[in-house]
Design goal:
The protein contains four helices and no strands. It is mostly helical. The longest helix is centred in the C-terminal third of the chain and has 31 residues.
C-alpha cells in the first residue's frame, strides 16, 4: 500500500499503474495465507505505523503525509484481505465436506 501511495504522489494515477494489480493480488494472498480474522487489521496497523513518519516541519504547500494516503486506501485493502480470507474459509469448508 505504501508503494502505491508513493507512486500516486509522483503524478500517475494509481489505477493506471500495474502496481494496483500487484497490490490487489498481494492483499488477497495475505487473506488466503493468514486465514485468520486478525489479518483484517493489518492495513490499519500499517497506517498507524506510518503516522509517526509524517514530516511535521514541512512547509504549508508540501505534499500530504503518507499515512493519510494509506488511510484513504485502507478500506479497500481491508476488503481485499476479506475476499482472500473468505475464499480460504469457503474453500476449506468445501474440502472438509468431501
Amino acid at each position: 500500500m505504501l508503494v502505491a501511495v508513493l507512486r500516486a504522489d509522483e503524478g500517475s494515477s494509481l489505477l493506471e499503474t500495474p502496481t494496483a494489480a500487484v497490490l490487489a493480488v498481494a492483499h488477497v494472498a495475505t487473506g488466503v495465507l493468514a486465514a485468520r480474522w486478525w489479518a483484517l487489521a493489518l492495513p490499519i496497523v500499517a497506517t498507524a505505523l506510518a503516522a509517526p513518519f509524517a514530516e511535521p516541519d514541512s512547509p504549508a504547500g508540501a505534499e500530504t503525509p503518507i499515512w493519510i494516503g494509506m488511510a484513504f486506501w485502507a478500506p479497500i485493502a481491508i476488503g481485499l484481505v476479506l475476499v482472500g480470507l473468505l475464499c480460504r474459509r469457503i474453500g476449506g469448508a468445501a474440502a472438509a465436506s468431501r
